[in-house]
Amino acid sequence: MKKLEQKEARELFEEVLGKRISDASWYRLKPVFGDDFPLTKQNVTWLAEVKKQLPKCDLRLIPIVNSVKVANQLIAGKESEISGKELLELFEQHQITIHPNTLTKWFKPLNGFRKTRVYELKELYSVILAAHTYKLRKEVEKTSELFIKAS
User: Fold this and answer.
1) Average pLDDT, whole number, for the chain?
2) Shared domain check, 35 and 85
3) Which residues contact 46 (CB under 8 A, 6 or more apart)?
């Protein structure tokens, strides 16, 4: 696949994101694109979509990008619909424990969470993505606490 020029890549990123990003933000984002993640149209579009789903996410963190890939694989590997109960079981399989209030907050755009309700996986993408990054943030917090205590 053809590599994009920096200016072209930034314009595409901003177009997909739906808003302009600062020079500093783009400067910090450029190192994400390397040999294993080249500056192609597909990768720039994908990263902008992630930023749209998780606006406060630091895309420079490799585990965040990996969480997004896991979420994409989960959605691709399942049927088109899943019940709330099955979703919770799926989170349990991936060792993701979510506080009920957090779950309520994530499902607010979907008119709330119900175990018996059947959801389309497309509409659950942001919830699955949020769950994986939530787990990642909790792991980072635990590691930081251990590091501080050891110091």
Assistant:
1) 80
2) no
3) none
pLDDT band at 28 (very low <50, low <70, confident <90, very high): confident
Q: Is the four-CA dihedral 48, 53, 55, 58 of positive or negative sign? A: negative
- Count of structural domains within the chain: 2
> Do 107 and 146 belong together in one domain?
yes
Is pLDDT at 77 greater than 80 in this prediction? no
Long-range interactions of 95-98: CB distance < 8 A, separation 24+? 95/135, 96/131, 96/132, 96/134, 96/135, 98/131, 98/134
pTM of the model: 0.56
- What is the Cα–Cα distance from 66 to 58, expressed in whole angstroms? 13
Check: CB of residue 55 under 8 Å from CB of residue 31. Answer: no
